[in-house]
Amino acid sequence: MQMKFREDINALRAIAVVSVVLFHFNHDWLPGGFAGVDVFFVISGFLMTMIIVKGLEKESFSILSFYKARVRRIIPALAFLCFVLMFLGLFLLSPIDYLNLGKHSAASLTFLSNIVYWTESNYFNPSSNEKWLLHTWSLSVEWQFYLIYPIALVLLRKFLTLNQLKVVIAISTILALLLSILVTMKSSSAAYFLLPTRAWQMLAGGLVFLYPVNLKANTKSPIQLIGLLLIVTSFFIFTSATPWPGYASLLPIIGACLVLVSNNGESLLVNNKITHALGKWSYSIYLWHWPIVVAGYYFDLGEHWWIVGVPLSVILGATSFKFIESKTLSDFHLEKLKYALRPLPFAAMSALIGMLIFYTNGFLFRLAPSEQILVNSAIEAKDDWKYPKPDMEIKSLKIRFIKGETNQNILLMGASHIEQIYPYVKSLDNKFNVYFLTQGGCFVTPSMVNPKWRCDNLQKYNKLIKEIEFQKVITSFYGFDAYLPKKSNERKSAINTRIKEYDDFLKALKNEIPQIIILTGEPKGIEFDPTIALRKNLPSTISELTARSKYTEHMEAMEKLKNLNGVQVIDPITHLCEKKLCSTRDKEHGFFYRDNNHMRPWYSIKQNSYLDMIFLEKVSAPSASKL
């Protein structure tokens, strides 16, 4: 079921892989280069629909043959990459990084990595630059599509004519697009990683095949050019802050579809030696480029690593294509099925090795006992977070509530640096009813916008204050600098706006609540991050001066607040550091934080005792003291 080689499709692959590679090496070059993955999805949808529907038309389609072809196309190069990374990682990675590599290798080879990365993409998500196989999420999405799509079409074909089947696919595309837009608005992470919100992009490619447009010869080049311009435009006008893949992704999708519709392989734009080679090697380049990007960050190879990394990605991609990928693309006869399935045992073995690495904590047994203790502490710290799901809703605001012994109320409001206080508050014999109104990664001022989720649950605090009479409110100033612009002029303007809004916030609170407490910020830094501390063998303390230097912008802003009079300001650094040093771990408990700035629950309970006076004392008149 071979089709004539299409240079335009090959060129689309080249454009897609180049955009992704450049984006990953430097976001500033192509801020929307991630849209290249969407182009890949369109191509896959077009080709898979063509193979399946042509087979159904001839009544010769075989699901088993379809799966065999996908195995030969995708698995060998992927399995080899995972095996090489696990082998090198044994010597080059810290145990905690190695166990994550093992987990992600197994997930990639079982095509579940998109789901794994989605579950890891919460507020405490480790940097994407630490995940050697993060890019395989797109392969998992495609493979899941390959598993479901042919079965669905074969079953539907039993009850529908081919024309009716085409209509069903068209309707499904529209519904899937609407779902993607809706989910992107609600949860951009789920929309980005999961098949249901990506399926429409592959189905859109399928529609190009199902509903062909016969263009006149003189219109093919203009249509193709428009399509290419739409794709390239998306690389420049979108950024990683753009909610994706909602309606914004229509631009590169429509562009890719127009190129496919034009079916013009004669244009010099798509038919040249460069696009031919890059398109041919695109899958292997895609596989190898991301680990090279991660290596630059992991080993601190500098901002100019791309000078080596980009050509190295192409060289390794071309080598992988020649010696691995191209060896598995030829058709096999049925009697040679055992040779066609050779990639599967190797992939299965590699996946099992990955699982073994994960379940032995990165082959932890190879280290000395003292090192094992510290690594185990780091592993435990990573998931050590006790903040329950909301158990109360007031005026559509989600609340965590701790019942006290009186009818007096305390409100804690802020982001994760208020959430981390919860274990401590829960451990107290509370006289007050305690309400937690929080939203991770947010700040109370309305001009602060988190690009990944809405902050309404925190920023609409006034609905709760009007409903409940609070005697005290505790909030955090930690997130004051969150998501400020990087350019100095824009940043200065945004800071001034945020200061004014925070002044308005304090004024509103003072009109309603007798006692207001602001927590400035806890010690933070990479030394507190268990994973990085182990990876780079960082010291167990930082100076108090270093800790305070990270809050210079915060302190300058607080000095400009006009409504701070009568508000109690508490500086956690004063209470958490001793003898001008801030500790990150000890021999008894191991690491104090779960990442570079969030306390573990036991540490919160132990060290936040300096807040006892707030929760155990009766309501006092507002004071202007600064502790």
UniProtKB/TrEMBL annotation:
Where would one find the signal peptide in this protein? none
Q: Where is the Acyltransferase domain?
A: 8-315
Per its UniProt entry, what is the enzyme's top EC class, as one word? transferase
- Keywords in alphabetical order, please: Acyltransferase, Membrane, Transferase, Transmembrane, Transmembrane helix
Q: From the Swiss-Prot or TrEMBL record, what is one GO molecular function term?
A: acyltransferase activity, transferring groups other than amino-acyl groups
* InterPro entries for the chain: Acyl_transf_3_dom (IPR002656), Acyltransferase_3 (IPR050879), SGNH (IPR043968)
Q: Which residues form the SGNH domain?
A: 404-600
**Stated name of the protein:** Acyltransferase family protein
Q: Which organism is it from?
A: Alteromonas stellipolaris
